[in-house]
Design brief:
The chain is an alpha/beta fold. The protein has 3 domains: 60 residues, Arc Repressor Mutant, subunit A (Orthogonal Bundle), CATH 1.10.10; 42 residues; 220 residues, Ribonuclease H-like superfamily/Ribonuclease H (Nucleotidyltransferase, domain 5), CATH 3.30.420.10. The chain has 16 helices and 6 strands. Strands 1, 2, 3, 4, 5 and 6 form a 6-stranded mixed beta sheet that branches. A hairpin with a 2-residue loop joins strand 2 and strand 3. Helix 10 runs parallel beside helix 12. The longest helix has 17 residues. The protein is elongated, with a radius of gyration of 30 Å.
């Protein structure tokens, strides 16, 4: 990584000459856009102390890292190992500088560490299936996407799904002042599985799902989903519509497939491990945050049957509180998700 390029004495003289002719800083920058406006101002300010506008020796302590070492650090974090720790970076240059200096260099390079995104584990076969799905629907128009009906299940759990809270207190101050956002350990609060579906201009209610007493573990089974579909899909899925549900085993069960066939409902072919392609996932996050905006007391309510019922009722209210315009926008921007899958060749997207 080379040092910042210096202006030639001839260019400095030209800048000073233009200024003496009455040109403003902005006008000089317009004539020489390759020179930053701040550099033009500094050049004019230092004209009196330069000898024939020649470059002067830089003030301050000389750099301890050579250009080769700086290039090595940049190449390592950009191409070789973006997960490398600060200590390993320091070791790679034989601890020539302290960690504070390394952090300063990284700021100068415009490099910082980001939390790594989490995505479902995909194999090449999964990516191929996702890519094939995108190819199948890449020519869908806005009107085509309006005929899709999206569905999914989600679990609401007391104390989870709350939006992050921002504070002006530094982390150390937050600890001293007990200014922290307390989060519930997963699986510790009362919870309930819910189902809903939506499309352009329409949505179902939010339906609590009870377990199947005849199922091995007493959970939601294909029989529960078949009863759900039989009761809610007629009238919701119109002729010419396409219904979407994922590849969960309760959806692929024969009893569920029989009900869909009996109702004459066309089902979208869905790729595996693709929650990023189902827009209802965005609505679940909005709904869960809305629960605690409407009923903040639920965050610390006792885990009782009464609290569970309050949570379910709050979720229903929060689901219907989501503006229909949001649902409509999501259902008509699916082409962007399809494009993202195509560009990623079936692999991970930003959604």
């Amino acid at each position: 990584m080379a040092q910042r390029k210096e202006l030639t004495p001839q260019l400095r003289s030209r800048i000073c000459e233009l200024r003496s002719l009455g040109f403003s800083h902005a006008r000089i920058h317009k004539l020489h856009p390759e020179v930053p406006l701040g550099t033009i101002k500094t050049t004019l300010r230092r004209e009196a102390i330069r000898n024939d506008n020649a470059t002067q020796k830089r003030s301050g302590r000389p750099r301890q890292l050579t250009e080769e070492q700086r290039d090595q650090i940049y190449d390592t974090i950009t191409h070789q190992n973006p997960h490398i720790s600060h200590q390993d970076l320091l070791a790679s240059v034989s601890h020539t500088v302290k960690e504070r200096s390394l952090r300063g260099l990284l700021r100068e390079l415009g490099k910082r560490k980001w939390r790594q995104l989490k995505r479902p584990q995909l194999t090449q076969a999964h990516a191929d299936a996702r890519h094939a799905w995108a190819k199948r629907y890449e020519h869908y128009t806005v009107e085509d996407w309006k005929r899709l009906k999206w569905s999914d299940e989600c679990t609401v759990e007391r104390g989870r799904g709350i939006r992050p809270i921002w504070t002006f207190n530094r982390p150390s101050e937050q600890l001293a002042e007990h200014d922290v956002q307390e989060v519930l350990c997963s699986g510790k609060g009362v919870k309930k599985m819910l189902w809903a579906a939506f499309g352009y201009g329409i949505r179902t209610g939010l339906v609590p799902l009870d377990g199947d007493p005849l199922a091995r573990k007493g959970g939601v089974s294909g029989w529960v989903i078949s009863c759900l579909y039989r009761g809610h899909l007629p009238g919701f899925v119109q002729p010419g519509d396409t219904f979407m549900h994922d590849n969960a085993s309760v959806h692929t069960a024969r009893i569920v497939q029989a009900v869909l066939q009996e109702l004459g409902i066309k089902v979208m072919i869905w790729p595996p491990y693709s929650p990023d392609l189902n827009p209802i996932e965005n609505l679940w996050a909005l709904m869960k945050a809305e629960i605690y905006r409407l009923y903040p007391e639920l965050e610390h309510a006792p885990d009782t049957e009464q609290t569970l019922q309050q949570l379910i009722n709050a979720a229903k209210e929060a689901w219907h509180a989501i503006d229909q315009a949001i649902l409509d926008k999501i259902s008509t921007t699916m082409s962007k998700r399809v494009d993202a899958v195509l560009k990623a060749e079936g692999w991970y997207t930003k959604y």
